[in-house]
Amino acid sequence: MSHDQASYLELLARGAAAEAYDRPVLLARASGAGPDELADLEQAKQLALRVRAELEGRRRREAELSALFETAHDLAGLRDLDAVLRAIVQRARSLLGTEVAYLSLNDPSAGDTYMRVTEGSVSARFQQLRLGMGEGLGGLVAQTARPYVTDSYFDDARFEHTRAIDTAVKDEGLVAILGVPLMLGSQVIGVLFAADRRARVFEREQVALLASFAAHAAVAIDTANLLAETRSALAELERANEIIRDHSGVIERASEVHDRLTEVVLRGGGVHDVAAALSEVLDGTVEFTDEDLDATGADGRAVRHGDDWVAAVSAGGELLGALVLRGHRDLDPVDQRTLERAAMVTSLLLLARRSAHDAEQRVRGELLDDLLDAADRDPRLLRERAARLHADLDVPHVVLAARTDAPGTDTPGRGISDRQSADRRTADRQRLWSAASHLAATRSGLAAARDGGAVLLLPLGPDDSASDLARQTAKQLGGTLRELVTVGASSPVAGPAGDPSPIAGAYAQARRCLDALRLLGRAGQGAAAQDLGFLGLLLADPGDIDGFVQRTMGEVVEYDRRRGTDLVGTLDAYFASGMSPARTKDDLHVHVNTVAQRLERIGRLLGPDWQSPERALEIQLALRLLAMSSAVFR
Fold it and tell me: Which of 532, 579, 605, 606 could lock 610 by a disulfide, CB 3.0 to 4.6 Å apart?
């Protein structure tokens, strides 16, 4: 090997540029080398250039393989998709030696493709570019799933040029562009590009290299999507676990509330026991109230009422009361439902208690009705029925007749229809019967609804009198109903179980006493016949009252009946005004001559001495008895 040939080995060893391989030939020619030597040198040069090209190719492939390995390594430790895609674009630009590299992704919802990552770009318009499917070189790659390369973009007619794309490419100054598809199976998800701002021919190896990077980018995107789906699934699973835990806590607390309330109901507890159990479960103070709270509705929902929570206790649209939770300004939905559930249980307890009370009231009323209407009942059966109601019919009893005297109970008021007035009277009688039944139960007695009012049969204590019972009953019933209740009492009846027949007569006596009290203007009071003096003696034993009235002023009554006049009313007004014709005419709203004429007619019917003190007293008593006869002596 000559010295000149050895110089090519030196050039290969130090990786000299291709131009340096011409120097040994030029030096040999300058030194006068012969043709054979020059031919050998030329042959050695060509061989050295081939070796150099092979070495350059191997170094390039090693660099490409190293870049691909680094990319695969990045994918293995994928944390940030954007960072991995930027690394792929940067390495593609570096290995292909292009001025610009970029990556676009398809948008299935919009039906186009958009820029995702750019490297070396200087145009904002280009970085925000969106390409329709089939538009531009990238749109063509995305549509056909095949690589495309152009040496001169604006002179290439193989793809559709649009004004927006061409303007963006022109702003960026690109000329030569290579695009390869990003594939997931047979689906194109985007395009990876390498581009120069000058004319350039991309070799087949460069197309294959960019395709390899595109494959890595597709894997990175798919992996990132899978990770995102996994994270989303994990997040949803965690939320589901939280919901399950919450529901489990709700179920446990609901089970605890159910157990506590069931225990209260089974052991016969009342509404206050429910409130006490709920106080422990909700860690607060729960109270039952029957007051009318404006914040409550009839739907049983727990609502805020100031600093408290209130759940209405209702049934069939009727508000029975409310459960009030104090000490909890904020209440979670679980505790709200717990309070509402307890309100429902409370309403059921109240309805059950009311049903039992109503049933007991009916039984007490039926027994008293039998005593009043069926005097021939078997005493043994009467005693057994009374014993079940904790009543002792072998001790003295008093019969009491009670009636409300609320305004408007007898006649319709202004603006109130007959139907409304009747409904009101029915409601008042129902309330009176309910209150009388409760009072009778507390006194080991009986009560029933009768004749528009209530009748009670109460035991007479050793230190009590019929008058005492009448006054106490009027006071207690009036206080319960918050209105006037008038009560008339009979004389004591000894041991009604042995002989119930006196009960009916005692009831008649109590009713006469009741009506007398109302006619005497003593509504709201209680009294027995002996409290009414001479009138009381007549009430206790009516005797010949009708005969007395007939003998005293029968002719006047008969005259009114035949002629349709009101001489009886004139007499009553005359005595009420102190026997003054002037005041009588004012009370009757007639002329004084009319009064004089009526008094003259009365004188002719009753006789000239009818105004004497003795006759006047008898006439006034007859008037009072006559006024009461239609209401009392039936």
Answer: 606
Over residues 290-314, the pLDDT tens digits come to: 766 554 555 667 777 777 888 787 7
CA 437/CA 434 separation, integer angstroms: 5
Tokens of 272: 């206050």
Long-range contacts (CB closer than 8 Å, 24 or more residues apart) made by 360-363: 360/389, 360/437, 360/441, 361/433, 361/434, 361/437, 361/438, 361/441, 361/447, 363/388, 363/389
The confidence band for 406, taking pLDDT boundaries of 50, 70 and 90, is low
| Residue 633: pLDDT band with limits 50, 70, 90 | very low
> 189 near 205, Cβ under 8 Å?
no
Tokens of residue 563, six digits: 């002629």
For residue 417, what pLDDT band results from cuts at 50, 70 and 90?
A: low
Tell me: pLDDT of 179 over 90: yes
Q: Which pLDDT value is given to residue 538?
A: 59
Token duo for residue 158: 């193989």
Among 307, 299, 311, 304, which Cα is nearest to 338's? 311
Assign 533 a pLDDT band (cuts: 50, 70, 90).
low
Residue 117 structure tokens: 């990552």
In 437-561, at which residue ranges do the beta strands (DSSP E only) sit? 446-450, 453-459, 485-489, 526-528
CA angle 468–469–470, rounded 5-degree value: 90
Q: Are 133 and 111 in contact (CB under 8 A)?
A: yes
Which CA distances in Å does 186 have to 142, 181, 205, 284, 329?
12, 11, 23, 66, 62
Question: pTM of this prediction?
Answer: 0.42
Residues 6+ apart with CB under 8 A from 570: 584, 588, 595, 598, 599, 602
Sign of the torsion formed by the C-alpha atoms of 424, 426, 427 and 431: positive
Cα→Cα distances 179→81, 82, 101, 116, 411, Å: 21, 20, 10, 14, 102
CA gap 310, 139 in Å, rounded: 67
CA gyration radius, the chain: 58
503, 495 Cβ separation under 8 angstroms: no
Q: Minimal CA–CA distance to 470: which of 516, 429, 520, 531?
A: 531
Nearest alpha carbon to residue 25 among 46, 49, 45: 45
Spatial contact of 270 and 353, defined as CB atoms under 8 Å apart: yes
Contact 195, 101 (CB under 8 A): yes
CA angle, 524 as apex, 521 and 527 as ends, to 5°? 85
| Amino acid at site 21 | Y
Condensed to tens digits (0 to 9), the pLDDT of residues 98-138 reads: 999 999 998 888 888 899 999 999 999 999 998 888 788 98
Angle value at C-alpha 462, between 459 and 464, nearest 5 degrees: 70
If you average pLDDT over residues 474-486, what whole number do you get? 89
How far is it, in rounded angstroms, from Cα 419 to Cα 411?
A: 11
312 Cβ contact list (under 8 Å, min separation 6) = 296, 297, 298, 299, 300, 301, 319, 322, 343
In the structure encoding, which two tokens stand for residue 389, read together? 């109601």
| CA–CA gap between residue 341 and residue 301 (Å, rounded) | 9
Q: What percent of the chain has pLDDT over 70?
A: 80
The better pLDDT of the pair 282, 223 is held by 223
State how far Cα 591 lies from the chain centre: 71
